[in-house]
Specification:
- It contains 18 helices and two strands.
- With 339 residues, the chain is an all-alpha fold.
- It has a single domain, classed as Farnesyl Diphosphate Synthase, CATH 1.10.600.10.
- Helix 2 packs across helix 5 and helix 6 runs antiparallel to helix 8.
- The longest helix has 28 residues.
- The chain is globular.
- 44% of the residues are buried.
Length: 339
C-alpha cells in the first residue's frame, strides 16, 4: 500500500478547479512552492543534494501543496509567503516518508525510477530522508511555534501509523479496522496538515482551520482507498498501472479484506489462495478474477460513500465560494477515478 496520492502545477489543469481565476492563483502558488523546494533542497554538499533531489526530479504530483494553497483562500492572506513555506514543509515531509517507506518495503521503483535504496543502499536512503526532515524543520522555525507543535503531533502520528502497519494486527483491531487506522495515520495526516497549515498561515478563523484539517484527513483516506481499488479493479490501459501489484507484495487492501471476510465459496477460495505474496502471474490473475466476483468492490464503495458524506459535512462548514466548489469537486473526483 502506497502512502497516498499526491496534483503539481501540471495536474491542476487535469483536475480542473472549475474557476479560471482560482486555477491561475493556485498555479502561481504552485510555481512558488516548486521554486522554494528547489532552493531549499539544493543546500549542502553535492553528494547530499543529488540524493535528496532524486525523487523531486523524478516528478510526482504535488497534491499536498495544492491542498494548502486551496485552504489558504479562506484567509485574508491567501498564498502569502508563510503559506508557500507551509506548503513546502508538507511536501518535504511527504518526500522524507517516501525514502523511509521504500527502505522498509524494500521497494525497487518509485515514480518510475530506481528507488534511492535500490540505487545507493538503505543507509543512504534513510539519511536522505533525514536530511529532508532537517530542511522541513528549518522552514518550520521560520514560521511559528504553533507550526512546530503541530508537526510534532504529525510526526508522532505518522510514525505510529508506520509502526502499526509494520507490526500488523497485534493491536487488537480487526484486519479491516487496522487498515483504516493505518491509512488515517499514514496518509490522511499529511493532507490534514496541508489543510490546517494553509488556513492557519493565511489568517483564517479557528472554525475554518478545523474544518479544513478534518476535510484534508477525509480526502486523504478516500484517495488511498481509491488508489487501492484501482490496483485491483482498474483497466491497465486506463490507469497505466499493472493490476495486482499489492497482491504480488502480499499487501491486502480494503477490497481484498472485505472479500476475505466473505462467508462464501469465493471468500473461502481467496483465503486459501492469499496466504502471502503472489509471485505467479496465473495466481494473480485468478485472485483478481475472484475479487471481481466478490463483494469487495461494492463494500469498499459503500465505505467511500460514507467518507464522502463526512467530507461534505466539513465542506458545509465553509463559506460558499469558488474554492469550496473546487474542494467539493476534488472529493467527487475520487469516485470517477475508480471507473
Amino acid at each position: 500500500m502506497s502512502t497516498g496520492p499526491t496534483p503539481s502545477p501540471r495536474s491542476v489543469d487535469s483536475v480542473n478547479l472549475g474557476d479560471a481565476d482560482l486555477n491561475a492563483r493556485i498555479n502561481a502558488g504552485m510555481v512558488q512552492v516548486e521554486t522554494l523546494l528547489q532552493e531549499r533542497l539544493n543546500r549542502g554538499e553535492n553528494f547530499i543534494t543529488s540524493k535528496v533531489n532524486h525523487l523531486v526530479r523524478a516528478g510526482g504530483k504535488r497534491f499536498r501543496p495544492m491542498m494548502a494553497l486551496l485552504a489558504s483562500q479562506y484567509g485574508p492572506r491567501p498564498g502569502c509567503l508563510e503559506v508557500i513555506k507551509a506548503a513546502a514543509i508538507v511536501e518535504i515531509v511527504h518526500l522524507a516518508t517516501l525514502y523511509h517507506d521504500d527502505v522498509m518495503d524494500e521497494a525497487e521503483k518509485r515514480r518510475g525510477v530506481d528507488s534511492a535504496n535500490s540505487r545507493w543502499g538503505n543507509s543512504v536512503a534513510i539519511l536522505a530522508g533525514d536530511i529532508l526532515l532537517s530542511h522541513s524543520s528549518r522552514l518550520m522555525s521560520e514560521l511559528d511555534t504553533r507550526t512546530v507543535e503541530h508537526f510534532a503531533d504529525t510526526f508522532e502520528e505518522l510514525v505510529t501509523g508506520q509502526m502499526r502497519e509494520t507490526i500488523g494486527t497485534s493491536d487488537g483491531l480487526s484486519a479491516i479496522d487496522h487498515y483504516m487506522t493505518v491509512i488515517r495515520e499514514k496518509t490522511g495526516v499529511l493532507i490534514a496538515s496541508a489543510g490546517y497549515l494553509g488556513a492557519l498561515h493565511s489568517g483564517a478563523d479557528e472554525d475554518t482551520i478545523d474544518a479544513l484539517y478534518r476535510l484534508g484527513r477525509v480526502i486523504g483516506i478516500i484517495f488511498q482507498i481509491v488508489d487501492d481499488m484501482i490496483d485491483i479493479f482498474s483497466d491497465t490501459t486506463e490507469s497505466g498501472k499493472t493490476p495486482g501489484t499489492d497482491l504480488r507484495e502480499g499487501v491486502f487492501t480494503l477490497p481484498v479484506l472485505f472479500a476475505l471476510d466473505e462467508d462464501t465459496p469465493i471468500g473461502a477460495e481467496l483465503r486459501s489462495l492469499l496466504t502471502g505474496p503472489l509471485e505467479n502471474d496465473a495466481e494473480v490473475a485468478h485472485a483478481l478474477e475472484l475479487l471481481a466476483r466478490s463483494t469487495g468492490r461494492a463494500r469498499t464503495m459503500a465505505v467511500i460513500e460514507e467518507l464522502l458524506a463526512e467530507a461534505e459535512a466539513q465542506i458545509s462548514r465553509l463559506p460558499e465560494c469558488e474554492t469550496t466548489d473546487a474542494l467539493r469537486q476534488l472529493s467527487s473526483y475520487t469516485i470517477r477515478r475508480v471507473g
